[in-house]
Structure formats: C-alpha cells, structure tokens
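Narrative summary of target 7.
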Amino acid sequence: KDLAKGIVTIENHYAFSTLEKLLFFWNITANGKTIRSGLLPTPEIAPGSSGEMVIDFAPVKNPDANTEYFLNIEVKTSCTTSFAEAGFSITSAQFALPVKKAKTISVPAILSGKDKVEIDETESSFQIASDETFIEIDKHHGTIHQYLVDSTPVMDHGPLLGLYHGEIDNEKLPGRVGPAMWQRFHLDKAYSNIRKVSCDRKNAAIKIETRVEVPVYSWGVLCNYLYKFHNDGSFDLEVEGDFELRELEGENFFLPRIGLDLTLPCEMENIQYFGLGPGEAYCDSKEAQKVGLYKAPLEALETSYVFPQENGNRHQVRRAAFYDLHKSGFLVKGKDDFFDFSAHRYSIAALNKAKHPYEIERSEEIHLQLNHKTSGLGSNSCGPVLAERYSVKPGPFKFTLSFFGFKAGELSDQNFFTLI
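Modeled conformation, tokenized:
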C-alpha cells in the first residue's frame, strides 16, 4: 500500500480460518543479496477479510549505483498440517522498493587507460581489436565470425535477427494462428540478405544493413545492426528495423518473438543472470518467479516437457553472463530495457522435429536467443487463445544490448554488476 512506510495489505482468502498457524518472513535484497531480514508478528485478519501490516525496516540510505532493492515477503506454515509439513511455503510476494537511484558515473572509454580500438579491413571481413578482445565480422553474412577474449573463443556465430521459436502445444488447436500461419508464411525459413556494410573508423562503428526475407513470399523485415566498439573491449549493438508486410496485411498475425540468434562454443555452459527466476518465465506466466541473482549450468535452464516444445525462457533479465569452467566468457546487458534469453544445446528445428525428449538431436554448439520481445504462452490447449496484450505484433522495433568479454578470474558476484 505504501512501501516507503513499510505498509502492505494482507488478504485472508481462507473461508473459515484465521492466519494464526502461519509465519510471515521478510527480507530486503540488493541485486539479489539479502541485506536485512526478519520475522513479522502474525496479523489478526478474519477469514475473507483484509488488513494492513507494517514492516519496520529502516529506509535504504545512500543506495549503491547499478543496484535494485526489493522487499520480499514469504508466508510459511508454522506447524505440520494435513496437507503440508511445518515450513511449507504458502505464498510469497516481491515489491520493488521506491529507492532513489544513485547516479552512475561512467568513465569514458578514451580515459579508461585501455588500448584504443583498432579496425582492420580485408576483402571478406572487418577485424576489431581493443584491450585483450578480438572480433571479426564477416561482411558476406553480416555476423560475428570470431569473438576472442584473451585468445579464448566466447562466441561462434551471430547475432542475427530471430523471429521464430519452438512450437508450443497451446498454439496447435483450431482457432489459433500459431505454427500453422508461421509455417505458411515460412517464418521458420527466414534468412538475412546483406545490403550494405560500412565502417566509421573515427567513431569505431560498423553498420550492417539487411533485409530479412523468406522463400516464395515478398514480405520481409528491413533490419540494421550498428556496432559501436569501446577501448575496454566492450561494444554496444543497436538493432533497428521495420516490417514490410504485404501478404501479412489483414491477417491476424503475431510473432513468436523479436530478438537475436547466436551460437556459442560448447564450453560456454555456465550462466549467471539477474532477472526473474529461478524457473522459466514468459510475459503471461511469471508470478511464481522473483527478481534475483541466479547461477545455473546450461541443462538446468531447460524445462523438459513430455512433448518437446518451446521452453526455458528467462524474462525481465537485466544482465546475464555466459562462461566456461575457467570463467572466461562474456556479459550482456540491456542498454535501456530488460530482455529475455534462452539457451539450449539444440536448435529450434531439432526441437520441433522431436516427438519425445530422447529424440531431440543435441548440437555441439550452444544456441542462444537474446530477445527484445517474446509472445506469451497462452492456454489454448484447454482455454482461450493468447490475449492480444501478450502477442508480439509486426511493427517498428529498436533495442540496444551491451557486450563485455571477460577473461578467467575477472567475474565475481560483485563485479558482475559493474563490469559493464
């Protein structure tokens, strides 16, 4: 009700019971780390009623830069009941605290003491070197062909605009415009046609102009990628585009997603992220997840459904790191907004082809999606079609992601939030 004063509203949805057999725990987290916690007195609220609870926590003074503060409340059983043991979690809630954000002081790359950005050009590629980072961009495919940090490969191929994802059971019933329409318009066969590649050495920038096209049809997406390289080895990637609809006009058409597709070396199988977790989440299926700092091996991010389908999306992610056993890898951060990501050891085509989990053909490389927008799951297998507000519609889009490669020993829980 008033988080600045620690006032929250509690609703008792029991028909006959009070809340006397429940325990109310609270904590405050800063970027996922608990900084305060406590046990609240159980509120006296009659069945079917609501009341206010005051959490007496001191306001956060002198907040750290690049830090998000959350109040978390969890309600557990105080004793064993007929349906659960003592300590069973009944419900939980999370609230972003109204903390005045500290100003972030950014040191311009030119003053950071790092080597300057050097760009060399060959007939087939641009080669960018700065600090201990080497990146090669293929002119013919418009993608990163090599991304080395201290001589360690951290990316194999990409990024390229991605619009498709694995099929979902909820999208397959009559009345749903999911996979049938996506395949009818060959969304699963989209490819990029490079129109122009240019280099601005003065500003250490490379621009790639493309048109994403499909077989047979004339609809497509004009999409431009603008890379801006910095002296510390990091770079920003601005992606901007718009749809040329033609055949799609008048159709009740929506997209699975708008994002980027990348492949990583098989060794980049460890992931750390700050966002909704620990489980998968989508824009219409996220209430069970809480914002926090999570670490997991690649396989732990997968949700293995009985019938293979789209899975494992992480939603409202602020930043994420992908690294090997020596902690060499790269970190990606949303420049102005949150993003979604999913990572698997199989392609979308392999997922859609399989009828059982054991039939999914695994890849040597890791398939990573970094998404600007992702459509919801819906419930059309047993309920209504996906609500309009959860559908990604074709239209103009623009988003920026920042990348920073780190070598072994550079990544920690603390500098995870400050490397970029």
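Residues 105-113 have pLDDT under 50 and may be disordered.
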